[in-house]
Every structure is written in structure tokens, then in C-alpha cells.
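re the bet — no i am not wrong, look at it urself. input seq straight from the record:
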Amino acid sequence: MIEVSHLTKRYGDHTAVDDLSFHIEKGQIYGLLGPNGAGKSTTMNIMTGCLAATAGQVTVGGWDIFEDAAKAKKLLGYLPERPPLYLDRTPQEYLTFVGRAKGLSPRQLEAQLCYVMEVTRTADVAHRLIKNLSKGYQQRVGIAQALLGDPEVIILDEPTVGLDPKQIIEIRSLIQTLGRDRTVILSSHILSEVQAVCQTILILSKGKLVACDTPENLERRFAGTTTVALTAQAGTEEVRRLLAFLPGASQLTFQPVGEDKCQVTLETDWDEDVLCRDIFFLFSRAQLPLLRLTTARAGLEEIFLELTRDTADPLSAPEEEAVQGEADTRETPGEEEDAE
């Protein structure tokens, strides 16, 4: 659906996107992860034709985003991190303007207005000024404008930033709904959010793609060792002698608990199910009560920190967000009152 090939974007001596290549399949929800300054917003701005690349190519449905801009952009709906809203207009007025700008006929516009306001649940605030809506409703209006024109791909840059937990859950549910019949790409700093809604995760660091896979495969590939913790009703020396016969265990730590209990943590590269089975039978044969046995493997957060640990301080890097209309862009022209 989208092909990004050797994409590079430089601001003077700073490289925001560095020889980036990836492929977006149709009908999936993709998560774009990375620390501040990693190149997420720059990449999205280039993918949507809002910003020119220094080098490389982006095609959408086979159309080059700059050479065939009109055809490529018809396939895209975009919500920037700062929604492009007219605050002194109502959602009905604003969406009507956007629909006309996208070339919808009066009949198409009427039908699509009903659809996008229904799916984003903004019909009940259709006639209120946008500036008087809560941040959550403003984000919904922003997503509604991205849906006008019935695009095949929806690109959302930080769609839940600044929202409260209830609003985040609602927007997350909306994204999952949109992903049923569209390709969705979203960037986020919230790892649990990406893990909950995305089928594929792309992780950027210093403008480079450092990982691209499903959340489950990423955990399997980068998790490394498994930590096993157990509590036994036995003395420390007794447990130590017993575990000396356990293969595959390393870095054992023993901690007495009271007079008759012992806590142990160990690491292993073995299959955790096999190791836990061996531990269970080991204590069973010794007739020692095993009170607790748990395993822990590195999650997405630890993997993300490991892959991006060398990212430079974003405060020292040039502003990632591009200003439309800068010299090298080739874009084709053409809470005061809570409403929740």
C-alpha cells in the first residue's frame, strides 16, 4: 500500500530521517514508535506530501507522493499532531469546508458528513464552536476531517496526546474500528497503547528504522533471558543445595524470609516452561513446599529503551516539525467549556 524507499531528510547539518525504508501492507494497523527527535513526525509529513524529502521516494498505492500528488493524496487521510481546526467554526461548518476542498460533490459530502460524524461520535456537538469543545472532541473532529473522502489509509500523529484516560480509551477504540476496513498508521509515545491496537510496530531511533515486527515477535526476538522467582518453605542452605542440580540456571540470588522460608531469583536462556517444570518436580521429589513460582521476560518497554538508548537529547536537535511552505517543500496547492 505504501512503499518508503531510502528516505532521507536533512535540516542543515542535522539528519532527521536517515536512509529509511519500509513497506506498509493494506488492511493493518501500524504503530510508529520512537523518542522525541527520532524522526516520526518528519516521516509522516513526507509520507503525506506536506514536506519534501532530501532524498528517497514514497509511493502510495503505486503513485509517487510528489510526482502524482493528487492521485496519491486521494488515498490518504492525515491528522497532524496539532489538528488543523478552525476554532471559530462549528464541526459541521469546518467539515463541510474540508469536504469541498477535497472535491466532494454535494451528494457525496452530505453522505460522508453523516458517516464521519457518526463514527467519530461528533454529531451531538455538530453545531457548537470548536473552540468550546474539550480536547477529546477536538481530536475527534480532527479524525473526522481525515476520514472525509473515504481514504484507504489513515495517518494519525500522536492522536491521544493531551487526553485524559477516558478519552484515550475512546480514541483507542475508534482507531481499532477504523482499522477494520482501512490501513491505519499512528505514532505514539504510549507503548501500552501501541501494543494494544497495532498489529505491526516500527521503531525509529536517530531517523533510522531499528525494528519492524509484531509486538509478540519483538518480545521473542529481543527479550533475552527470563527471570524466574520462587519462594520455598525451607532454609536457605537447603534450597541452595537443591538448586545446585538445576541445569540452565545462572545468577542465582538467595534471600532468607523469616526462619523457614527462602526467596530465590535466577536467570535462564532455557525455555521457561521447561525450567519451571523442572523446578516443580525438583522440590516435589525433595518434599519441600514451593509457595510461589513466577517468570518475567523483558516487555515492549524494555525492548524500546534498549533499541533507542543511544538517541541524542531531543532538546539539542533542530525542531522536528516542519513548517509547510518552507523553501524545499513540493506540496501540491490545492477549553473553556467541556462538551463531554
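see?? The first helix runs from residue 40 to 47. told u. also Confidence is low (pLDDT under 50) at residues 312-340. so pay up
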